[in-house]
Design goal:
monooxygenase activity; 32% helix; Antibiotic biosynthesis monooxygenase; alpha+beta; Alpha-Beta Plaits; 10-stranded antiparallel β-sheet; 2 domains
């Protein structure tokens, strides 16, 4: 089977059978090169048989910074990804690099499927996301219990926001724990970029629950970047 492109460019983040989520960042050097790289990825993958090694989906998001691409792929296991690297990856990357030379493949992190997910706005639940706020959190060393406890603290703060700080246009937030115990990734889906920007601007002073999140023991740092869904592929079609 060849790759099938989903029209809404959105993976099913709670797809059955997912054992690992691989997330990587590329720098491509400008909005035109972003578009060219996404098109090169599409052509490269749709012209080849889908690698039957446990890859369930492969999605690409375009950074609103005009430079980066975020890649999110779902696998049955981390070993399935290693098998793909050994047998299929170089050929695909070579074709993409020929179309868009000079891509900087910055970093790749390995996560488990979402540990917890939240609906941000009941009126927007189920909508197709037009923007994704990617929140990356890093801790001072590996600690799986701390990862889970930090996410649980975020959910306590979100529960307190339900009335005081609503999130119109927010679709869902999906928290992934890195397999090395050092990071948390939140893919927060929004109807559009403006909805997320307005929610951020309405933050105000930190309440006790959010202060605990931001000052959590062992928290080394965090950052938020916005992306637009660009491409989502899976077997079929």
């Amino acid at each position: 089977m060849n790759a099938f492109a989903h029209p809404d460019a959105r993976p099913d983040l709670h797809r059955p059978g997912v054992g690992a989520a691989l997330v990587s960042t590329w720098r491509v050097g400008g909005p035109e090169r972003q578009r060219a790289a996404v098109e090169a990825i599409r052509r490269t993958w749709e012209s080849r048989e889908w690698p039957d090694l446990g890859l369930l989906s492969y999605s690409v998001y375009t950074g609103t910074d005009g430079d980066t691409l975020l890649h999110y792929s779902q696998w049955t296991s981390e070993q399935a990804y290693e098998d793909f690297v050994r047998t299929y990856r170089d050929d695909r990357n070579a074709e993409i690099d020929a179309a868009v030379p000079g891509i900087d493949r910055v970093v790749l992190h390995r996560y488990a499927p979402p540990y917890r997910s939240a609906v941000l706005d009941e009126r927007s639940a189920g909508a197709v996301p037009g923007a994704v706020a990617v929140v990356e959190v890093e801790f001072e060393g590996p600690d799986a219990e701390r990862q889970r406890a930090w996410v649980d603290a975020v959910f306590t703060a979100l529960d307190g926001d339900a009335e005081q700080r609503p999130a119109p246009g927010g679709i869902g937030a999906h928290f992934h724990l890195s397999t090395d115990g050092t990071r948390v990734l939140n893919l927060a889906e929004w109807e559009n970029e403006q909805a997320h920007a307005q929610w951020q601007a309405a933050g105000g002073p930190l309440g006790e629950a959010w202060a605990r999140v931001h000052r959590y023991p062992g928290l080394a740092g965090s950052r938020v970047r916005r992306y637009t869904p660009a491409l989502s592929l899976s077997a079929g079609g």
